[in-house]
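Run log // design_07
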């Protein structure tokens, strides 16, 4: 019945109806999402995945999702397509100074204290699922401001994500002016500038700030990864929420290998960890201190 309606429509308009994602194929693709990024997709996400992956069918030259799945399962297809697949399925919503209480907590005095507590006497911050960079640049602004432009203590922010597409956006660091409205006025004035020769509809981050922001691709699911430094502060916000609870604890345990004792871990507002035996002390809503 549905098929004949589609055939009738195709005959009448000449247009080929878009491929649809059936439930068995969806479940197998969802398993691949889980394996590659740890993200759980319930059956309710079928239409979302269908919409996000549709353009990949044309990109790899197949007509339907079954063929796309077969392509992804073949070793050569997987090697060629897995990154683009991952880039399509992740949720990248973010904003400057998102969840303001976390930034309120990181006063200049607190940042100075954190810098002094580390062996290097420098402030090392990691945005561990940085999306397009708004979190990392918000942190860079407060670090640079508190350090008097690096005169009081050196600082760096490491921005990592699983998505190469997002890391490209971090590198470009160009944002709609509208999206920068949550940046406090003084920091906005000091660290952002027009990206397009004065029209000011799109803004970019000043080079002196970008110089201290390092980028890297890290999949938090991997057993081993190297953010490059022992951190004083780790932001891992609004990514654990997509993982199974047991995986969340494993991921946090691995993050802690890169946080010094006394360093701070920030999780997203919906990501508090309940029962665990990690060396963490809750000091404020979703702000934890590594105890040992
Ligand atoms: C909703 S955004 C959160 C961005 C930012 N932390 C914030 O709170 O605004 C989630 C980010 O996590 C990234 N992500 C998803 N799975 C990941 C994984 N296994 N490892 C690293 N990053 C991952 C996505 O690419 C996406 O950019």
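design_07 sequence
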């Amino acid at each position: 019945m549905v098929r004949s309606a589609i055939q009738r429509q195709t005959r009448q308009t000449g247009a080929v109806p878009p491929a649809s994602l059936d439930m068995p194929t969806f479940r197998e693709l969802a398993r691949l999402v889980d394996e590659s990024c740890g993200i759980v997709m319930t059956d309710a996400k079928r239409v979302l995945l269908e919409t996000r992956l549709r353009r990949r069918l044309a990109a790899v030259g197949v007509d339907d999702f079954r063929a796309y799945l077969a392509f992804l399962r073949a070793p050569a297809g997987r090697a060629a397509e897995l990154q683009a697949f991952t880039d399509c399925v992740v949720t990248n919503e973010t904003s400057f100074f998102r969840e303001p209480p976390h930034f309120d907590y990181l006063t200049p005095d607190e940042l100075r204290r954190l810098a002094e507590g580390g062996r290097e006497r420098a402030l090392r911050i990691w945005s561990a699922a940085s999306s397009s960079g708004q979190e990392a640049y918000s942190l860079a602004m407060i670090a640079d401001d508190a350090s008097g432009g690096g005169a009081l203590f050196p600082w760096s922010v490491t921005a990592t994500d699983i998505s190469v597409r997002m890391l490209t956006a971090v590198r470009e660091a160009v944002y709609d002016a509208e999206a920068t409205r949550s940046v406090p006025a003084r920091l906005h004035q000091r660290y952002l500038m027009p990206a397009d020769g004065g029209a000011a509809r799109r803004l970019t981050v000043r080079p002196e700030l970008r110089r201290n922001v390092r980028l890297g691709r890290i999949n938090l699911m991997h057993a081993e990864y190297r953010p490059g430094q022992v951190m004083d502060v780790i932001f891992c916000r609004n990514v654990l929420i997509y993982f199974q609870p047991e995986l969340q604890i494993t991921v946090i345990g691995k993050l802690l290998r890169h946080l010094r004792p006394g360093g701070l871990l920030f999780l997203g507002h919906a990501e508090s960890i309940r029962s665990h035996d990690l060396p963490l002390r809750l000091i404020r809503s979703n702000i934890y201190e590594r105890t040992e």
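The first strand starts at residue 123 and ends at 127.
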